DNA sequence: CGCTTCATTGACGCAAGTCAACTAAGGTGG
DNA sequence: CCACCTTAGTTGACTTGCGTCAATGAAGCG
């Protein structure tokens, strides 16, 4: 099993602020898990009792609303942590995590990390920074949900995915999402998302290549009203 | 000027985890500000350079969307802190703060508190907890915005305000909001909010007494679909 | 007593939700 | 290898929630 002290992934998250000794300790009790596309990492309401560090792959964090629809709240890629929020508030998870492609994650049990959080100020300050960043993003999403049209939100989502998660060699989005996923990100019906996407295609803003989507006119998408 | 060490307000927020010495130091450089109803505490984009501790009153935190409408993201009452998020990410404020009634707030400049945040683990862990809680609330709001009707959101808002901020002796909501405020919380047009409110009134769920709103049937509101 | 700001109500149009039919693609077993 | 089934995607038709514009009423206020 790999060692946390040597893992480059930690450079991308708060774990970088842990001391060598702390990392060695964590390394000894962490478990690595391989997760297949579509598999559930943890359920909404589940007591996670630790955090996941994403070594590879990408997943979606979603919440089931009362009407039975899933709302995707955040997407998490290689290098980021999942589950910190619930760890800190000592609650069950408020979100479900599902892999969007094959993943590799390390699980760090609660008791190993909670102590560092309470005693290592550099580490907790780093986690604080990440959480503050997430909170700002969440505020922005609230405003978008409340004030913008489905068409506008979908356009912004496409640009966001391209800019945050990158593209394949053929310029298609590297993250492969179903139409339902798109709908669940922007908060609309699947059919509505489909219609808007095919409208974008008709307008020459995107191309649809097999299951992949390629953005042809980023500026155009940004100008969508 | 009052002294932080003796201020009971701090019991309600993370400041309670500061040591006596830290509080004395903060007390010496804090400034107290009286803010009238409707007054702006800080603007979106303003560099706050510190945090506000709300000693009395209530305010709204909102963000202007590109179409020119304000979206209220959070309401803050006596005992809570404002501006921690921006303090931590070292950015300008992403939100505007406006007093909903007469307020009294203490301003603690950045340089006095940032050090405590980086060295006092109890304190930063407390701030972390508050932020984690805010983040969960934000996630819930995202789901509501994306999946529920205006009618449903307004019903939930009314219940939320009653349960979080309490009622006057005559059972009316203690927080007085304009119709526009309600619209900006649920993310809709003012006229739509008005229509839904008068519908609730017609259905006997609420009463409108002068400028005040009284909830007559909490359960009924919770059942709204 | 006019002026301004907030609340209310009506009329109208459009964005988006819903239901339903149909196609395409992939997978499995006989 | 084909027949069958399942799942994802697509499109049309219909309905409706909600935004917008506009007119009017009510309430404070200098």
From TrEMBL, chains A, B:
Gene3D superfamilies in the record: Jelly Rolls, Winged helix-like DNA-binding domain superfamily/Winged helix DNA-binding domain
Coiled coil: none
SUPFAM superfamilies: cAMP-binding domain-like (SSF51206), Winged helix' DNA-binding domain (SSF46785)
SMART domains documented for this protein: cNMP (SM00100), HTH_CRP (SM00419)
Pfam annotation, one family: HTH_Crp_2
CDD domains: CAP_ED (cd00038)
Alphabetic keyword roster: DNA-binding, Transcription, Transcription regulation
Classification via InterPro entries: cNMP-bd_dom, cNMP-bd_dom_sf, Env_Response_Regulators, HTH_CRP, RmlC-like_jellyroll, WH-like_DNA-bd_sf, WH_DNA-bd_sf
Record-annotated HTH crp-type domain positions: 148-219
Record domain Cyclic nucleotide-binding: where: 14-110
Listed name of the protein: Crp/Fnr family transcriptional regulator
Organism encoding this protein: Mariniflexile aquimaris
């Amino acid at each position: 099993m790999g060692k946390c002290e040597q893992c480059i992934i930690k450079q991308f998250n708060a774990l970088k602020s842990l001391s060598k000794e702390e990392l060695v300790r964590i390394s000894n009790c962490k478990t690595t898990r391989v997760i297949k596309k579509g598999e559930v990492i943890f359920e909404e309401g589940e007591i996670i009792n630790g955090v996941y560090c994403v070594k590879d792959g990408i997943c979606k964090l979603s919440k089931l609303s009362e009407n039975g629809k899933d709302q995707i709240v955040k997407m998490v890629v290689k290098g980021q942590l999942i589950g910190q929020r619930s760890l800190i508030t000592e609650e069950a998870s408020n979100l479900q995590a599902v892999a969007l492609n094959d993943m590799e994650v390390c699980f760090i049990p609660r008791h190993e990390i909670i102590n560092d959080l309470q005693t290592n100020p550099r580490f907790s300050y780093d986690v604080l920074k990440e959480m503050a960043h997430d909170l700002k993003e969440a505020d922005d999403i609230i405003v978008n949900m409340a004030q913008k049209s489905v068409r506008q939100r979908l356009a912004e989502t496409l640009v966001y995915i391209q800019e945050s998660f990158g593209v394949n060699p053929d310029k298609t989005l590297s993250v492969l999402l179903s139409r339902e996923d798109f709908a669940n990100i922007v908060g609309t019906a699947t059919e509505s998302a489909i219609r808007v996407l095919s409208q974008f295609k008709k307008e020459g803003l995107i191309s649809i290549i097999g299951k992949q989507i390629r953005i042809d006119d980023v500026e155009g998408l940004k100008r969508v009203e």
